[in-house]
Amino acid sequence: MSSWNNPNPVTQLESTNPYGNYTVVDTAPKEILHMVHEHWYQFPPMNPLWYGLVGFWMVIMGCLSIAGNFVVIWVFMNTKSLRSPANLLVVNLAFSDFLMMLTMFPPMVVSCYWQTWTLGLLFL
Question: Which residues form the G-protein coupled receptors family 1 profile domain (predicted)?
Fold first, then answer.
């Protein structure tokens, strides 16, 4: 039986921190630990509720951003009266934001679901 003063060693998490505290770095995969700066060893892990909240927020914002930027690109490219040099900058901004959200919000949602980076070195 365990207590606060004498915890069960099976329930303790293995720490990668040289100082012995459980930190946010302990959730990182072993193959990317060499890239983590020692600054991050001072922070405790995030509350699991935050992963769900951030993941939910990213799904909502990602879908709105992709849909909104697609509509902006479609309207500006299909309406001849809106084709001006100034509006080309708006289309350029919408296109770059569309591509950024199309490529970056899915890995963010996956990371929030698994509560760590699971995509390996390929996406870093």
Answer: 68-124
